[in-house]
Amino acid sequence: MLIVIVAVVVVVVVVGGVVAYYVTRPTPTPTPKSILFYTWWATEGRVAGEHTWPLFSQYFHISVSPYVVPGAGGTAAKYAIIALIEAGKPPTAFQSHEGPEMVSYIEIAPQGANSFYNTTSYWMSLVTTGNVSIPVIEAGMYNGHMYLFPVNVHRGALLFFNPQVLREYNLPIPTTIEQLYYDAKVLYQHGICFMIPGADSGWDQFNLWENIFLALGGPKLYMEFLYGTLNLSDPQVQEIINETNTWFLKFQALDCPGWESLTWTQGLAWVIEGKAAFQTLGDWWVNYAYDFLNATTYPAIPPYTSWTNITVMTEPFPGTANVYALDVDAVAVPVSPEEKYGVLFAEWWSSWYWGSGIPGGDPSWTKWKSATFYTNITTDYYNTPEQWWSYQQLTNMSKNPSDWCNFVYQLSDGGVFDDVFAQVNQGLLTYAEVGSVGTSQWMSTLASALAEEKAEWLKANSLGLGYLGWPGHYLGCYVPPWVSNTNTSGS
Q: Gene3D superfamilies per the record (predicted)?
């Protein structure tokens, strides 16, 4: 009888333990049918995605569902993403820029930096290989902490033009701001305008203003704007800002009819058609022209400058030839039940080679969009000559530490915090609309924006994220005053 009772007890204990295990064990996250990716790529990024994301689905049997919130430079999508993060309902992955933009998300996230997948060890291991651009990694790292997967590098601060128009009126390719204005003024008198669209919420105006400022002030003052440390009381700075404002209004006076209702994509068609003389943006312009207008962009270098059949050329904005303005697109992955799939997607996308015979997503993506940040690529696989030229310049400068001080991060594409971005965009759009009578208001807006930018960085510093780079490596060789720095050599 005792044996029977013991047997029953053993059975009960075993069964109870099995039941308890199944009740209490973690429920594995099922493989999602689709990855929700928030983005503002409605044009050239969408085309690159159509050539890249199906490959991810082919290799990993998970589809990608982009949720597009259109708006140049993320003028609308950034705030939709912030709202989702604040509500505790982030997407599986989302588009971001490098630069301080990502810190905007960290600062409002419920768990701060812990709300996002930390990519630091992954990228630092790649840095040791010598096969990635150091300045590109600096631009996405905050005091040695990284929460992004870069996927491509655009070059900002470029000038686009139709060389046939210049040739028709016997005008030189401009290499100074004064020469650019001379060309633009002559062409304007012949009914050919300077394209500065106004329907992108002030983003195009920000591009023009920052490019003039970079040409006049150089990379150090530009980086001071990025950190909000630009001293508007300094007479030399005042002089440069005043000159920047003057040139901004002079070019704005040569703008195209109906500019207020034009977007950057509509504007570039005017340049290709010869109706507009110039437009200044970054080389996302190149990809859109290729994808939608069947126009190939060439750099303004030999032998292309002697070719007579080219309709689109580009060069660094006059006065910025030795500076590389980075605009790095990237993917962030919030911590969530589907985090590992977001990481799989983003890491594959940013990889050149995945392994086991599977290529990474970066070769396909960057063929259609800007350039890769891997510096060991020797074959021109790009759609346009401009992309290969831009990549070669990025690689050559990245491999030469003495050039690292000539990298900046483009202000209008991630180089300022999101609230400052909106403030400057609106301020410059208003300035363009009202002209010189709005100078004092614009200067007030600028002062307010710089103060807010500095305050945001100080807040980031309190979180241990107070600068772009890692100890001994500072983007643009600029160390903000709140950072205790013991090694500024090299970068």
A: Periplasmic binding protein-like II
